[in-house]
Amino acid sequence: MDSGPSALLKKLIPVEREEWAPVILATAYGFSILFSYYILRAVRDEISVADRGNLQFLWTAVFFVMLLAVPLYSSFVSRFSRGVFIPWANRFFGLNLILFFLALELLPLEVRPWIDRVFYVWASVFALFVVAVFWGFIVDLFRNQQGKRVFGFIAVGSSLGGIAGSFLTAQIASLVPVFVLLLVAVVPLEVAARLASSLHRRAGEGQTTLRVEEKERVPGTAWTGIGLVLRSPYLSGIAAYIFVMTFASAVLYFQQADLVGQAFGNDRGASREFLAWIDVATNILTILTQGFLAAHLLRWLGIGLSLAFLPALSLLGFLSLGTYPLLAVLVVLQVLYRTGRYAVARPAREVLYTVVGREERYKSKAFIDAAVYRGGDLVNGWVYTGLQALGLTVGGIALVAVPVMGIWVAIGLFLGKAQEEKAAEMAGASPAPPAGV
Question: In whole angstroms, what is the distance from residue 126 CA to residue 37 CA?
């Protein structure tokens, strides 16, 4: 029986002793992925500030690239085991970064704006795909009740990676060429590939803390994951939750580009540094929430209220921004919004997939987290542009977002109830898990 410091640690971080090894590996994997991404994030966001007049066109390009990428990924998933496709997905993106480096070094300066735009599209696809692959893998390893306890802690690794990547970028962004940042981001992607292989081997060795599937390859074709979403009210509800979330994110993202652009003008280095410091603040607050509160919130509030937390926070935030449309208010809202999204909504969302099959975990999840997400970006980016064309200011658009946030709250509550019903059905149809799970 645990006592003293061990008992206190377990109360703060409810991970069982036998779960620590795979949880630490999963946490390190998340750290590596987000470390790489946050090195690149400020570069991508600075491009959006410099080219903000074309932002909706860039988001349109991202969506169509994503429509092509999702079925290709699903086909790859059906052909190879997760021990093959997950490490090589990370290595594929690392190779892409090397190719961008060569393009920036070797091509004429006149084509730089187009390299920036291609990189922006690529980075947006990268951001969703590597994270979707990571969480699909984690959900495939841990069971429903485990997920409620350990996903918050695993997400700490992602936030630590975000802190490390954004802090590094903030320190060196004005000192080194952007080419150097691309090469630095390759290293953690290779580390992530090796950690994924290690986790896969542990499951294959019969670790009782990890869920072992009889079939290594995910069944179905490149298109079955999409069909499952269209036929399932549960998966459609998850897609709707993501879609409305992209509306909130799009409003904040466009308003950030507008207000930062007004504040810093054409000083791209200062804009990049300011955006990186926003990421630092976000990730510090996120890690504190993830490490000590997320698991307890999921258990105390349940999945439904946990999913409704971010929409309710956004509703209050947009009311504030509508009343005081200032950069300082937007920064506070952006930090709180991202914290709630990563620390509470993300673990709760991933628990939703612990009560569905492998096709849903990998293929439907990839479609929702990638194509639906970027489809929402596309639609809502044009919605924002349309609202601007009608003459609405930053404050006016924020107030338009308020009732939409109310709809988002309702979707979260619906998903929580549906997840509990599916978990009860699964518990009734399956043998009891090993002790401690």
Answer: 8
